[in-house]
Amino acid sequence: MIGGLGMPELLIILFVILLLFGSKKLPELAKGMGKALGEFKRTQRESEFKIKEEPKDAEVIEKKEEIKTESKEETVQTTETTEKSETKA
């Protein structure tokens, strides 16, 4: 049973589809639906991967910015220390 549909209902639906499209067109329709479903699943996996990777990328960027800020602060402190020692001498 699929979503509340029993076997008789599914057979009626398949029969109506066969009448509408004909037996020659059904394999083409199935192939097209299969390709569309495969493309949908591939895109879904890619989207999930990107969503999982974005926080990691953001963390890496934040760490790089912290390192740059720390190195700038160290440079300023070193410069200030050097200037103080030069003024004392």
UniProtKB/TrEMBL annotation:
<dbReference type="Pfam" id="PF02416">
    <property type="entry name" value="TatA_B_E"/>
</dbReference>
<feature type="region of interest" description="Disordered">
    <location>
        <begin position="62"/>
        <end position="89"/>
    </location>
</feature>
<comment type="subunit">
    <text>Forms a complex with TatC.</text>
</comment>
<keyword id="KW-1003">Cell membrane</keyword>
<protein>
    <recommendedName>
        <fullName>Sec-independent protein translocase protein TatA</fullName>
    </recommendedName>
</protein>
<keyword id="KW-0812">Transmembrane</keyword>
<comment type="function">
    <text>Part of the twin-arginine translocation (Tat) system that transports large folded proteins containing a characteristic twin-arginine motif in their signal peptide across membranes. TatA could form the protein-conducting channel of the Tat system.</text>
</comment>
<dbReference type="InterPro" id="IPR003369">
    <property type="entry name" value="TatA/B/E"/>
</dbReference>
<dbReference type="GO" id="GO:0033281">
    <property type="term" value="C:TAT protein transport complex"/>
</dbReference>
<dbReference type="GO" id="GO:0008320">
    <property type="term" value="F:protein transmembrane transporter activity"/>
</dbReference>
<comment type="similarity">
    <text>Belongs to the TatA/E family.</text>
</comment>
<keyword id="KW-0811">Translocation</keyword>
<keyword id="KW-0472">Membrane</keyword>
<dbReference type="InterPro" id="IPR006312">
    <property type="entry name" value="TatA/E"/>
</dbReference>
<keyword id="KW-0813">Transport</keyword>
<keyword id="KW-0653">Protein transport</keyword>
<keyword id="KW-1133">Transmembrane helix</keyword>
<dbReference type="GO" id="GO:0043953">
    <property type="term" value="P:protein transport by the Tat complex"/>
</dbReference>
